[in-house]
Amino acid sequence: LFDPLGLKNSTFSHNLSKSEEESIAKAYKYDGSMVEGGYHIYPEKAAAGLWCTPSDYAKMVIEIQKAYFGQSDKILSQKAAETLFTRNLGVMGYGFMIRLHGDSTAIAFGGGNKGFTCNIFSYFHQGSGAVIMVNSDNGKVMGEILRSMSKQYSWPEFKPKTMKAADVSTTTLLNYVGTYKGISTDNVEFTFEISLRNKCLYSTINNKTKKLYAKNEKEFIIPERDWKITFKDTDGSIDSLEFYVDYEKGTAKRIN
Fold first, then answer.
1. In the prediction, which pLDDT does 31 show?
2. What's the domain count of the chain?
3. Is 82 in the same domain as 185?
4. Three-point CA angle 205, 91, 104, nearest 5°
5. Domain endpoint, select from 103, 128, 153
6. Domain-located, residue 158
7. Domain at 142, CATH number
8. Mean pLDDT for the chain overall
9. Residue 27 placed within a domain
10. Domain match, 201 and 83 both
11. pTM > 0.85
12. Phi, psi at residue 39, to the nearest 5°?
């Protein structure tokens, strides 16, 4: 892929040249401290060994989209691109999350490793998108960038929203603390660890901890990801929650 697409700033090498070493953005933890050694080297090259830039990654995405529309077969045939961007497990295609908006299709994927966080989003038919790379475990700024771009390019997603958080008593919040497990309508498993810190509710969702903001006494959101959690009760006892996370909907039952 590198030569046909002219990806001059991408490599799987662990033995970087002096100039490559000097150009690498150092990785930072949530607390603002640098990762030991500047960055972590992963032996799993296919999963976590690629050094890349947003511009190089964008070139690949653009070329795959051209293949999808039959405009290029430099790296993929049209049939292969159509297969790549067809949902096969919930909202997932082969390597990307597939989002459908009327006649338009969008692809998205996020990830990272120690000290780096990345996100890619692109609308096929509109011809616009973004590749965002942050050299920090704290990737909140990516949400701000996507919302700004949504406003600029009139995307149907990531539109800025304004909400005043509701005031919910600590006594009520304590009722929600616990572990919840469930499966989405697309058969994806989710585990929610709800905790209370400094009078604020937090949810660790599949090992990702996020602060919850109250819309009302039972409905909470994670604004930077547009995730939603609603606590449910039976006979006055909280026994489940309904969730909307990463475009997956479902119900999780309380297990403790």
1. 79
2. 2
3. no
4. 125
5. 153
6. no
7. 3.40.710.10
8. 90
9. yes
10. no
11. no
12. -170, 165
pLDDT for residue 25 is more than 90:
yes
CA separation for the pair 69, 105 (Å, rounded): 12
> Which tokens is 157 given?
């997603």
46 is written with which tokens?
């296919």
**Are 207 and 184 in contact, with CB atoms under 8 Å apart?**
no
| Whether residue 174 is found in the same domain as residue 245 | yes
DSSP-derived secondary structure for 169-205: -HHHHHTT-EEEEEEETTS-EEEEEEEEETTEEEEEE
Give the pLDDT mean for 176-199. Answer: 93
**For residue 81, what are its two tokens?**
């691109």
* Model confidence pLDDT, tens digit, residues 67-110: 999 999 999 999 999 998 888 888 888 889 998 877 778 899 98
Tokens read off for 119: 């996100």
Residue range(s) defining the domain that contains residue 206: 170-254
Q: Which of 194, 212, 196, 214 is nearest to 204 (CA)?
A: 194
